[in-house]
Amino acid sequence: MPLTPLQEDLTSRQSRKLILFIVFVALLLDNMLLTVVVPIIPSYLYYLDEQADVVLKNNTLSQQEPPGAFHSIVSLYDNTVRLSGFNATVRSPDLVPTTPAVAELPQNSSDCPQSSSKLVNENVKVGMLFASKATVQLITNPFIGPLTNRIGYQLPIFAGFCIMFISTIMFAFSSSYALLFLARSLQGVGSSCSSVAGMGMLASVYTNDEERGHAIGIALGGLALGVLVGPPFGSVMYEFVGKTAPFLILAFLAVILLLCLFPSQSQKGTPLLTLMKDPYILIAAGAICFGNMAIGMMEPTLPIWMMETMCARKWQLGVAFLPASISYLIGTNIFGTLAHKMGRWLCALIGMIVVGISVICVPFARDIYGLILPNFGVGFAIGMVDSSMMPIMGYLVDLRHVSVYGSVYAIADVAFCMGFALGPSIGGSIAESIGFPWLMTIIGVVDIFFAPLCIFLRNPPGQEEKIVRLNTHLNTINHILHEHTEESENQ
């Protein structure tokens, strides 16, 4: 029995809600894995370096011992101590230690670290590790976007979750910098598959511009929630349970999400290079890039700066990002709908300025409580930028190109990844060279100077053929409404 139009509409709405839910959870999982390592990695790498130094020191001492040195041998039979190299036996009421005392590692390596210079040197290692994910994702995105246009969304999303599952398991059991670097890089491939396909799918099923903005705002709420939960979840689990536990929980969530995938259709869209030449798409992508670069620079450098200047504990390294995460969640949900009414260009312009001012204020904090207000401002402003620029990417494709969204959201994800690739890698080096305060000043000034470019997005010109088609469609609707009004008046 065929479905009525009402039943078809209801089925379509339920399908769209399911897609929105899966994209929401996908972004949640991806960004939890992205941020759960933020409080763990700096402290863990510092611990590994301290452990290596202790082992090296003990090996050096044992090699420098003279051949005729006395060693104590304890007899458990009669509680005596025999000295090798000297023919004597000494009876002792108490056991004598058989080996020299070994230097112990600090119980909490993030509480006032013993070597501040070594801690500063961690900036580059941590920055490169954090940047590896975004760098790989940046390289992968230009291939994933056109691929989703050809083969649909199901296979890329499925592959993305499988790769993220493997990456999460590697994070759980890796105990060296090389393996952690490989796990982080592998996550970039999985994130590219899931995020590009997910955002493209949302844009294709929500064709109305206002509904699309609202849906993308909700989906970005999943991203925000992942960023919100990740750092405190990672720091608390690392402090009280261990490094492995948070990653095993995320791996379990990835397996559950794999069971909820759905079929999709393939379409032919505008070539990627054509979209990359569009100046309006580039401005929107630039806003996404530089806005997120601020938090990308803070992720590896802020925990190290806190360890150096505030003697921060492990759990505090993640909790410091909590205000930014909460405000990002608030911002994306508020401006997902509000930006359409107030003008997305204006929302992005204000957001970029607020990001710049907020990051400049971060180094003025003297304790963890002083970080609350500037971090809240950073997160809220980035939420404004993302929730306005992500929908405008789909709108620009509708207005100026073919309405297929895989490639344009590949560009959006490239911009996002450039912020999180260049931010940690360059930020770590700058922080090591001239200090954390100057790093925040530089990125703050860059964001403020970029903000006026958003004015060009106020009224972007459309493709002439599309404008004519749209005007014809509107005239037809007006004509039908006019005839319906006349019939009502005659009756």
TrEMBL record:
State whether keyword Hydrolase applies. Answer: no
User: TM spans, by residue?
Assistant: 20-47, 157-180, 186-206, 218-238, 244-263, 275-295, 315-338, 345-365, 371-396, 408-430, 436-457
* Membrane topology classification: Multi-pass membrane protein
Its subcellular locations are:
Membrane
User: GO CC annotation: what is one?
Assistant: synaptic vesicle membrane
**What GO biological process term is on the record, naming one?**
aminergic neurotransmitter loading into synaptic vesicle
Kinase among keywords: no
This protein's UniProt keywords: Membrane, Transmembrane, Transmembrane helix, Transport
Domain called Major facilitator superfamily (MFS) profile: residue spans: 19-462
Q: Which chain positions lie within coiled-coil regions?
A: none
A single GO molecular function, which one? serotonin:sodium:chloride symporter activity
Which InterPro entries does the protein's record reference? MFS, MFS_dom, MFS_trans_sf, MFS_Vesicular_Transporter
Name-wise, this protein is Solute carrier family 18 member 2
The protein's organism comes out as: Lates calcarifer
The gene name reads SLC18A2
